[in-house]
Predict the structure.
Amino acid sequence: MRTIRTLKYKLAQEEMLEDISYLEGDGFFEPDAFMTGNPGGYKSRNIVIHMHPKDFIDLIEEGEDLSKEDTVRSLMESDVLFNTLPFISFVHDGMGTATVIAHEGRHRAHYFLSKGITSMPVLFNSESGGGGEAIRWDRQSEIGFEQIRGEWPMVLREQEGLIEKPFPIFDLRNK
């Protein structure tokens, strides 16, 4: 029997399949990279989403390491696949605002952006803290203690708190 969450996810996936470009950056990663951290699995706080590289860059702290940029460029141009996905970890306040607290993948995002790639996979990780509870993605359609209380995040703030983007996942709770 399918849960409401599964149906919502399936509908969202079907809409995305109409424009397959959201998979554009997937080909730069080994298939096993999409399973790191058990995304979407039982009680998992991780889920794989797709973001525009510019949105990813906007949400993270600035930084530059020319040796890393050269390494990423060299690997990508020689068809070496990455074994981990870029990630964003966040906390939320329970009142509609989530804030990025950690990330990895800045240089890959810059490379994608420079090549005109408009979508990249990102491991999206919910952490405890910030006043809200960690989101266990597979539990939100089940009424009970594991469903987050308070407001679902509507905005995602970058680490410095200066830029806000719409939260990339709609409310999965079965209300």
User: Anything to note?
Assistant: Confidence is low (pLDDT under 50) at residues 1-14, 16-21. The chain has one domain: 4-166. Residues 4-166 form a domain with the Conserved hypothetical protein from pyrococcus furiosus pfu- 392566-001, ParB domain fold (CATH 3.90.1530.10).
